[in-house]
């Protein structure tokens, strides 16, 4: 995989864990190859974008420092990613990182909209909740608002994965809100 074209070609050969892991192994901790991978996440081809995002999660699970220079850009392009799988992969990784103050508001708004949307997959909602909680740790004034939002989601009725994460975060927020009084 010498360049972006070869990387894209390999990703498009087949949709399999084996292929994604093969590509991720080829990237390793090489910053230039990783940069090429990030560019493919931004691609307008939904299949390519999703497969690149999946590969990105595998690479950054092993080498998280590779993602740090791209966090701001990834936050900015989230709304335009062409596949829910790409959004899910990027949110999954962003939920593990401290988000720069400069893009926290943008990410908060994006995750809020994903969470209240009726047509988003469970995984996107769950990662969005986690990111909202993480941001509230840096912006304590958001804790009460997030607490209420999560309670409302549970009251409306939702899928098990969403309610489980919401309950877990409500419990944490409740303790944090009580401790701050």
Describe this structure in words.
The chain is an all-alpha fold. It folds into two domains: 97 residues; 82 residues, no CATH class. It is 75% helix and 0% strand. It is built from ten helices and no strands. Helix 2 packs across helix 4. The model has no long low-confidence stretch (mean pLDDT 94).
Quick structural overview:
With 181 residues, this protein is mostly helical.
Tell the overall outline.
elongated
How much helix, percentage-wise, in residues?
Answer: over 70%
Q: Helix count, per DSSP?
A: 10
Strand residues, percent: under 5%
Determine the structural class based on helices, strands and strand pairing.
Answer: mainly alpha
Q: Mean pLDDT across all residues, rounded?
A: 94
Number of beta strands: 0
How big is the Rg?
A: 17 Å
User: How many domains, in number, for the residues?
Assistant: 2
Euclidean distance between termini CA atoms: 56 Å
Low-pLDDT stretches? none
Q: H/E element string?
A: HHHHHHHHHH
Largest sheet: none
